[in-house]
Amino acid sequence: MSSLHGHQTPLIVQQNEPQVTPFNLPLPYVTDQRALEALCHTLRQSPRLALDTEFVGEDTFIPRLELIQVATATTAAVIDFPAVQASGSLDIFWELICDVKIDKIVHAGRQDLDLFAIHAGQIPKPFFDTQIAAAMVGYGAQIAYANLVQRLHGTKLAKAHTFTNWSARPLSDDQIAYALEDVEFLLSIHTHLQDRLSTLGRLEWVSEEFARLETAVGEKSREPQERYQRIRGWDTLKPKGAAVLRELAAWREAEARRRNVPRGRVMRDEVLLQLARHPPKSVIELRGLRGLHSSEVDRQGGQLLATITSALALPPSAWPEVPSERKPDPES
Description:
By secondary structure, the chain is an alpha/beta fold. It is built from 14 helices and six strands. A six-stranded mixed sheet has the order 1-4-3-2-5-6. Helix 4 crosses helix 9 and helix 5 runs parallel beside helix 8.
C-alpha cells in the first residue's frame, strides 16, 4: 500500500486525553457569534473534535445547513448555523476545524465534508471517518452510527427525532440532546478503532481510504460532466445518445445550481433519458414529449434545443464510452 499521496496529514492518536461519560455533558445551544467565540476558545484546547451536521436538502440544490454538532472529551455543543450567521460570522469556527493540528472525527462524513468545504472554503483536514474505519476492522460495510454505538457501548440510541424538520424553530431540549448523541460517542469510538487498526496493521489502509474520500469531495466541482453516469439507464444508450445525455445532465446541473433547486425540479432523469434517446429538433417536438410540461418548454425550450444540437455536432472522438455489456442494476 502506498502513502497518502500528499492528501491528509497523519492522524495523531491521543493517549492521555481526558475522557467523560456520554450523556453527562452540558447541553449548550449556540445561537450568536459571541457564544460561538467562547465555544471555539474551549474547543481549541482539544486535539480532537467530533463533528456532525443536520441539514435540509429537499428543496434546494445545495443542502441548507441547520445545525453543527461538535464535541470534545469534556464539552459538547449544538451550533445553530442560521442563527449565528444572522448575528455575524462563523469564520472563527471554520478556521478552527481547518486547523491541521486538530483531528476531525466524523461518521459517514461525505455530506458533512461537502458542506464544510462549501462554507469553510476547504476540506477540514485531517479527518477520520469511523464508518470507513469500522469496515476495515470487521464491523461490516457502511455500518450505521447507532449500530456501532450499540455494539461498542451497549447503548441503544433513541429514534424519536429521526424525522425532525431541523429547519423549524425553536428546538426543544429533547431535540438538542438527540442531535448531540451523534457526536458524544464518536471520540471513544475513534480511540477503539485506532487501537484495532494499529493492532491489525491497517492504519495505512484506512488512511488511503480517507485520501480517496478527500479526493471525491475535492473533485465535486468537476462532477457535472460525469453526472450523466448516475442516471439509471444511461448505459443502454448508443455513444452518440450518451453524449447528448452528458450535455443535458451538465446543463441541468448548472440550471439547478443557478436556481438553487433540486435537480428533479429542473427536469427529471427519465425526461433527460428520453431526450437523449430521441433528440427533438423543434419546440413543437419538445411539446409532444411526455413528462415535459408546456411551461418548461416555454421557459427552457431554446436552451434544451441548443444543448442537444451542440451535443449532436460533437465528433465521435468526443462521445462517451458506453459499456458493451450492461451491468446488473444495483439492488435498491
